[in-house]
Amino acid sequence: MNIIIAILILGIIIFIHELGHFLLAKKNNITVTEFSLGMGPRIASFVKNGTRYSIKLLPIGGSCMMLGEDEEVEDEGAFHKKGVWARFSVIFAGAFFNFILALVLAFVITSLAGVDYPEVLNVREDTAVYEAGLRDGDIIKKFDGKRINFGKELDLYFFFNPVNGDPIEVTYEREGKTYNTTVFPKLMPPHYRLGIEYSSETDEAILLVVEPGLPLYEAGIVPGDIITSINQTPIKTGKDLANYFEANPLTDEPLEITYKRGKSEKTVKITPKLVTTGYQLGLYYNLYREKVSPLTALKYSFLELKYNINYTISSLKYLISGKASINEISGPVGIVSIVDNIVEQTEDEGVGYVLLNLINFAMYLSANLGVINLLPLPALDGGRLVFLIIEAIRRKPVPKEKEAMVHFVGLALLMILMVIVVFNDFRKIFG
Q1: Tens digits of per-residue pLDDT, 18-27?
Q2: Range of the domain at 259
Q3: Residue 202 and residue 181 share a domain
Q4: SS3 call for 136
Q5: pTM attached to this predicted model
Q6: Contact at 8 Å (CB) between 38 and 59?
């Protein structure tokens, strides 16, 4: 079932991409020889106004084939007969429609689930952020010169910018007033950590933060999960959890932790991690979405789109810099695995919650595909746009055979990359 869901998500996103090409081609009076839903052999088709509309066997994406796209054709409806900027708009429209789809999905998410405002949580007196003046309930507006709209943007920042000893400028809002401060990270002594934050004031031991790279995160525990026992000791409230850790400081001894998510309860055995190096801010922040008005949802849907575009660009920079391995890239098989994880981790919350998380994933994929396709690489839309820009500057097109050769080489390299990515996907799943 999850394979079908993954195919549908990916198929719809690719189809929307091709629909962008199709509509702008029609707008510019370019002859579309075939517009298809799906890939592979045709199972049904009809011809109207010179365009064959097809449904193909494999429900994966679609295609928009234009007359004179890759060869010289003496026809006024041929792609190459149109002006540079008309062709530019047709090529660009694929990625643009992916961004539009991501924006629509972002609006659905923000309307139904709300916004994760970057609210400061659980500030402790011995931390760098406390000494800088930050308190519970403050809303972070800028962090290290970067505009912050969501809690997850801070996650993104810390992933790509590990904390060191450098001071960090922070702008925050408190009771409608804006303040600026400087946070000086503190060098922490070696200590054991689970990677969670909670409030001792809650009626249940609900987790507010689960930090990536630390034991509870690795065990699949997420913010919102509720701790019900540790080593068979019942935990009913946030105060119980605080008392337990006060009475039982973390060591290298494994812990048996039982937690509740929705209607189900699970038990995991984890070992605290010894953190021996690094600076810390003591900054914990909200990742929960808060319901908002329709107008606010519309505003933040644009910011969601911006966040997903920035996330993709930052990930590409991380990969190019060599800080990430090509093995970390996921392809179609990896997407199926991600869908599996989404369904598994959220199904206890109900169908609606699963759908929201799948929509959120589709939003990211659509924005991701838009960015990737605009990269100035041969065989991608971005590579074709580069040739059109060169044509506009030279006032004459690059010879078709030369452009075709460049795209052929680019396509071959992309196919090799895809084989590597698919192999890695299978290795990660069955490895």
Answers
A1: 999 999 999 9
A2: 197-271
A3: no
A4: coil
A5: 0.81
A6: yes
